[in-house]
Amino acid sequence: MSGCPESKEIMSRLVEAMIVVACTAKGDGPKSILSAWPDFRRKVARRKRTFEPRQISRAEEALTWFALVDDLDSRRALQFEVMCKAGGGPFSRTCEKYGWKRSTVTSRNRVVLKQIARKLEEAA
């Protein structure tokens, strides 16, 4: 990746990655993310598509970015938002389910996205 990606670009790439993985994973993909979300995987998989190898590579790269988030709760909250944006249902419903205030989680996720962008820039 050239230059410093912005948080919106990070979010966009993560959403794209979730869609690609959900549509293409056959059991040998990154189960750690999707195994906890069988409903999400079924919803997105209904939109079955084929992807070019470069799209799959981009998705795999983006999924590694979750490991850049040291705090597990922050990583989890970001994963939930990404999955919802990728077609897994309303994020507000997920927030209700876990007793989170949506605006607080969304603003914290923006901070996390900026941290990911900064770490990617430092690694470049």
Descriptive account of the structure:
With 124 residues, the protein is an all-alpha fold. Helix content is 72%, strand content 0%. Helix 1 packs across helix 7 and helix 5 packs across helix 7. It is globular and about 40 Å long.
- Count helical runs: 7
Mean pLDDT: 83
The best one-word shape is: globular
Cα-atom Rg, whole angstroms?
14 Å
Strand content: under 5%
Unreliably modeled segments = 27-31
Helix and strand composition category: mainly alpha
- The string of secondary-structure elements, in order, is HHHHHHH
How is the biggest beta sheet arranged?
A: none
Total E-strand runs: 0
How widely separated are the two ends? Answer: 8 Å
Question: Helix amount, in percent?
Answer: over 70%
SSE order and pairing:
Blueprint: H1 7-24, H2 31-34, H3 38-45, H4 53-64, H5 72-88, H6 91-98, H7 102-123
Key terms:
124 residues; mainly alpha; 7 helices; globular
Summarize the model shown.
The protein has helices spanning about 5-25, 30-35, 40-45, 55-65, 70-90, 90-100, 100-124. The chain has about 120 residues and is an all-alpha fold.
